[in-house]
Amino acid sequence: MADVIARSEAEMLGLGAALARVLRAGDVIALSGGLGAGKTTLARGLLAALGLAEEAPSPTFAIVQPYAPPEVRLPVAHVDLYRLDDPAEAEELGLEEYLADGALLIEWPERMGDRMWPEALLLQLDFLDDGARRLTASLPPSWKDRWPFP
């Protein structure tokens, strides 16, 4: 486990940018936390650092928002599973296909039940009393040497 604190929206965007620098094809980043915890902000920082010129919309209604070159340097599917009622619905999204040459960034991964990839980087975002956010990472072996935070 590794903890990082973000005290502002700019710092949360920076955390996303730092993750983008080490992101590679086949990666899954799973973002958990309550409404307003900063999941979409972190995702926007990551996507901006990959080259996305405009602000990434929350994929709450689309569920899956794919990005591909030249829009970004690495194909990424930004996924928001908040509206899924049953973990089996996640299989219908075909998320595995994005991992052949790109990465997945998944908000509300707990909606997948036990279907999460074992090598996923699990990030829990929690509110702190002073309004800051704590990001707690469960680092799988493939991330131990790439984790960009001290």
TrEMBL record:
Keyword line: ATP-binding, Cytoplasm, Magnesium, Metal-binding, Nucleotide-binding, Transferase, tRNA processing
InterPro entries assigned to the protein according to its UniProt record, in alphabetical order: P-loop_NTPase, T6A_TsaE
A GO MF term: ATP binding
Highest taxon in the source lineage: Bacteria
Gene Ontology cellular component terms for the protein in this record: cytoplasm
Signal peptide: none
Record localization: Cytoplasm
Biological process annotations from GO: tRNA threonylcarbamoyladenosine modification
Keyword Cytoplasm: yes
Family: Belongs to the TsaE family.
NCBIfam families membership: T6A_YjeE
Name assigned to this protein: tRNA threonylcarbamoyladenosine biosynthesis protein TsaE
Source organism (scientific name): Sphingobium fluviale
Lineage: Bacteria, Pseudomonadati, Pseudomonadota, Alphaproteobacteria, Sphingomonadales
